[in-house]
Specification:
The radius of gyration is 23 Å and the shape is globular. It is built from ten helices and 20 strands. 26% of the residues lie in helices and 25% in strands. Strand 7 and strand 8 form a beta hairpin.
Amino acid sequence: MIDRLLDFLNASPVNFLAVRQITKALEQGGYRRLDPTEPIGVLQAGDKFYVTKNDSSVYAFQIGQRPLADVGFHIICAHCDSPTFRIKPNAEMTCEGGIVKLNTEVYGGPIMSTWFDRPLTIAGRVILRGENAMHPRTRLLHIQRPLLQISNLAIHFNRQVNDGVKLSKQKDVLPILGIINSELERGNLLMNVICEELSKTEQVTADDILDFDLYLADATPACTFGVHDELISSGRLDDLSMCYAGVEALLASPVGERTQVLAIFDNEETGSQTKQGAGSPFLASLLKRVAWQQSQSEEAFYQAVERAFMVSADNAHAWHPNYSEKYDPTNHPVLGGGPVIKFNAAQKYASDAVSAAVFSEVCRKAGVPCQRFVNHSDVAGGSTLGNILASSLPLRGVDMGNPILAMHSCRETGSVADHEYCVRAFTQFYAE
């Protein structure tokens, strides 16, 4: 099981490629792609389909034996974006000696220092000229070799580096792409790389390219480590590990009474307020269409929402053995201790006593340990999908995740056992 997760992480350096991997897995599991511009059509128990939005979010449905209005639905939601650096337009900056660096901007809230002095690559999507202006073509890009590096300043020029350094997002974190060999490469180095990579399957020239959404990604493969190979080291565990646990659970789940839904959103790291984010009405519109097809009634959707339950799956902070003072004294989850229910008095999480009781009972029935996380009262925490989704789709639900270390680092640390626990808990949830 853990090898499948590592393969998924390695093939999913950015949101677009994560969605491609998820849809491939769904199709292999018998799910058909549905075009949202077309009518959904008649739905039968056991029907499996998925819909994508913006190539960066995906919504999968396995229709239950009873209509949504009668029993509601069970939904697991997660997000496929992670903190990184986006390549700006007109990105090439040629410096002395022909060294080319790229102009980037920060996406989300990365720990920027962790991106220094490690091999990086480029991944994302490239937009090509199509049949007409309104219908360009999209090609996904993943350069699978070390291509760039953000280099530190030598300690000899910054003697205070180990005392903490404030980094400039515009100056300090620009990656080196390479050195130009001729004037023909000046201003064209990045475009040459893109065209060369895309042309491996279809000839592409710079004139074919209209725009791109490209990001930096760690080029070092995900791996396990520890004396017993019990830990995971990888970029993007937050939140791709939850995405993949949801996929594995959905594919393992037989048809039950309730409709099973998996929603993988984008742009959680920047607030979710996009057409493909948890703040969008897109998921609600899909559920309305399903409910209408089953019952020919608008009321059916509202009944389904009242009977539904949501698991908002986004990783939690594991207790760090070097910084115990940062954690709540009685509610600090540990690596390998099982899925974590997250609470917050300021309502940054959707969990309450009722929804926490439901999920902890699901874990008990699955034979899985369950932990609690509450922020240290003097240390502010982050927010996640649950409340954003619930503000537009008033679902009963719980915020949970697996415990990880170094959240938002270029490489995070998780537990092999926790991933296996989470898949079991999710599979049990879909069966309830």
